[in-house]
């Protein structure tokens, strides 16, 4: 593509990696290293899960949540943009079931009022949205008039966009006359056994220990609970649940091989060595003949990521409850994913 738009996500991750360039990982145990990270960064808590050969091989949970309780596998985290993973997989399962065409125009089901007079809305498809080529900024509040509009022709360039995913949510909800959270519950959460995940706060979520969100000094933010589903942000989940999801993907027990492979095919180049697939960042040509599917989430006081290495059925999930957690998540890539992890960090 002739013009590349860098996502705020990649810029933030790049800064985190560069900040660590002069640091070396010590030879203490992985658990001790993780404990040391918390003390060095004022991040209250972290939860890490490693998958090897398609099975959960290791979990490390350290620190405390927003109420001073110990972090566990079942502590509830807000994982920010990892929400896009759920929306992507829900859409792809609809495709697999023959209920959705990735290239069908979305205007048949939804036209945002802000762009109804702009004929470019007719070019929006699920594929274009999932590969971050909608033409929208990340959020409409970033426009001077706070109204959604196209920065370029859909499909022409790449630009990270939560609004694109929200556009897709509206289209799916109108097409199937069902809220996204119910679609995901029936198509994804229940089949995989993600019993403790939700787009919004509800009575069940209120019963969990919640990791909360904390600033760079480790002080708690006043967390704003959400009660309306967002296709791009604010998913509530646990380390255990997201581990189940990651293992299901690596074992091809959720999506058919052909659709999983299409999800990981580069659809739009971000920069050399980094592409967007469908809903995932893709790193091709890694050591050991690997490639990686990568997603990260970063909001005020919370940082998380997931990395899948499909060839070796290796995976990593990291969740933190602090502004400084992004750097810890990137350190975890280096420690737990060895050579492929090092190459991923180099490309940032």
Automatic annotation (TrEMBL):
InterPro entries reported for this sequence: Beta-lactam-related, Beta-lactam/transpept-like, Diverse_Enzym_Activities
Residue span(s) of domain Beta-lactamase-related: 39-325
Alphabetized Pfam families for the sequence: Beta-lactamase
Keywords: Signal
Keyword Signal: yes
Keyword Cell cycle: no
Record's signal peptide: 1-19
This protein's name: CubicO group peptidase (Beta-lactamase class C family)
Organism of this sequence: Flagellimonas meridianipacifica
Species classification: Bacteria, Pseudomonadati, Bacteroidota, Flavobacteriia, Flavobacteriales
